[in-house]
Design goal:
This protein has 223 residues and is an alpha/beta fold. The chain is 30% helix and 22% strand. The chain is built from six helices and eleven strands. The longest helix has 17 residues. The radius of gyration is 17 Å and the shape is globular. 41% of the residues are buried.
Length: 223
């Protein structure tokens, strides 16, 4: 009896988060990614990968994950203490300028992420459609015009550079502190893990299914 043909593997959504840094014991970006690992979103399987919070090693791990999973969509998450909402990043810039050392004690200052690379890359996610979709679900979200100059921007730029010229959508989302982190920083905003997991799940769904140009709505900043 002929053997049944193997079912083709479901397409993959690559979702990355970071290990803790800066004296923190947890990083919500990884807790969110790991919570969604293995879920099916818009017909694709989410595969979570934890990145080291290190300039040099982070892109090695990211590139290996891209080669292994060949995703249809790739989104990186990072912690941004002090922000009050899910920040859908618009642009990555080609500079590392570390205010603090990374987890390998490296502190590059005014060094390009990719020598000879473009000055910047835009996200290829429908950032405004994502913000609108999250707002409709009651999840605080906003377009962000800067991903900083630490390892988050380093990974965001490296991701966009790796996928430039392909049809794979990709981008970066910053997430706030968890309540237990904010408790030691008086006045710092936070969101519950469950809210952020729901928000990122919806962001992935919108990113995977949105057709056509992004929404033409205001999302800029005055300062």
């Amino acid at each position: 009896m002929p053997r049944a043909a193997a079912r083709p593997a479901a397409p993959v959504i690559l979702l990355t988060g970071f290990e803790p840094f800066g004296g923190e014991s947890v990083n919500p970006s990884w807790l969110i990614a790991s919570a969604l690992d293995g879920e099916t979103v818009a017909g694709s399987t989410v595969r979570a990968v934890r990145l080291p919070t290190e300039f040099r090693a982070s892109l090695r791990v990211l590139r290996a994950a891209l080669r292994r999973h060949e995703p249809r969509l790739a989104v990186s998450l990072g912690q941004a203490g002090g922000r009050a909402e899910l920040s859908i990043e618009r642009i990555a810039i080609n500079v590392d300028d570390a205010r603090i050392p990374d987890n390998a004690d490296a502190r590059p200052i005014d060094v390009p992420v990719v020598r000879g690379g473009p000055a910047a890359y835009f996200s290829t996610l429908p950032v405004k459609a994502i913000v609108a979709g999250l707002a409709a679900r009651g999840v605080p979200a906003a377009v962000s015009q800067t991903a900083g100059t630490f390892v988050c921007n380093h990974v965001f730029y490296g991701l966009q550079h790796a996928l430039a010229g392909t049809r794979v959508r990709s981008g970066f989302v910053h997430v706030p502190y968890l309540p237990e982190q904010a408790a030691v920083w008086p006045g710092a905003p936070s969101l519950p893990l469950s809210t952020m997991v729901d928000g990122v799940r919806e962001a992935l769904r919108i990113a995977a299914t949105h057709v056509g140009p992004d929404l033409k709505v205001g999302g800029g900043a005055i300062d």
